[in-house]
From TrEMBL:
It comes from Xiphophorus couchianus. GO terms for cellular component: nucleus. It is found in: Nucleus. Residues 8-25, 34-47 have a biased composition (Basic and acidic residues). InterPro entries: Znf-C2H2_ZIC1-5/GLI1-3-like (IPR056436), Znf_C2H2_sf (IPR036236), Znf_C2H2_type (IPR013087). Keywords: DNA-binding, Membrane, Metal-binding, Nucleus, Repeat, Transcription, Transcription regulation, Transmembrane, Transmembrane helix, Zinc, Zinc-finger. Gene3D superfamilies: Classic Zinc Finger. PROSITE patterns: ZINC_FINGER_C2H2_1, ZINC_FINGER_C2H2_2. It comes from the Eukaryota. PANTHER family: C2H2-TYPE DOMAIN-CONTAINING PROTEIN, ZINC FINGER PROTEIN. Residues 1-47 are annotated as: Disordered. Belongs to the krueppel C2H2-type zinc-finger protein family. This is C2H2-type domain-containing protein.
Amino acid sequence: MDNSVSHKIKEESVELELKQIKEQEDGSGLEQMTRSENEEQRMKGKKIQKDKTLKQCKVCHKSFKFNCGLTVHMRTHTGEKPFSCIICGKSFNQKGNLISHMRTHTGEKPFSCLTCGKSFNQKHILNCHMRTHTGEKPFSCKTCGKCFRHKNDLNSHMRIHTSEKPFSCLTCGKGFNTKRNLTNHMTNHTGEKPFSCITCEKSFNQKGHLNRHLRTHTGEKPFPCMTCGKCFNQRGSLTSHMRTHTGEKPFSCVICGKGFNAKRNLTNHIRNHTGEKPFSCGTCGKGFNHKKKCSLLTVAPHFSLMYLCFSTYVIFWLTCLPSRKG
């Protein structure tokens, strides 16, 4: 069969499937109901009667206003996925999820942002996107009050308070509070550095690290302090700086209790207790507990960077460089 004919038949099959699903939804939309106000109004318009008593799940005891909500919820326990994609065979527990998935095959993106025109294949993704324009952060942490645009971001944040780390590295066993952090960590084992700087060709294992590095070339400092106006090239640097205004010191030494406004300052301080000196002079071998006590210097174009102690640094400039100039 000709490829163009086969492709056309597949497109028609997808369109027919979507049409059938939507027709079924119009007739029995109860399976898609949620407890949102808009959905409740729609259900009232269809004269759906609301039970006086809540329906409770016998497994986890979660309650629902409608039988249909309980029916859909029960599939999370049973694993039932009665709605299958005719293209790839992937199954879903709700008809609406199947409809959204079908758009990945058709390329349909019916939900457009009125501000920037960007289109999406799901309405809830559009709603999340709109918050980048409005600045709305409707999900707040009940522990510290921090607000987030997306519920998933709040869920990840909550693990900071609970210390939950559900994502574990299969290689070393280290746990992480988000899947993204685990993915980034895995590159430490594989050595993969897929993100390269087009200016100096330096490579990084995370895109965020590359973006941060690029600002060293462009001089861009997109994170301004709203209090004093000082700008920073990293969001983390701004966060640490803000604590100089608020006086907040969230990082405490477990040995002496001293507080610090930045984690790196705590790390340097801890070395005063442990005696660790990870930075050494490349010439005399003297060790130091943090980088600031060394001067980073390129001795020659064909030599690698070395950490030099201050005395060696001075001697180098007084003796070596004049002779090199001569």
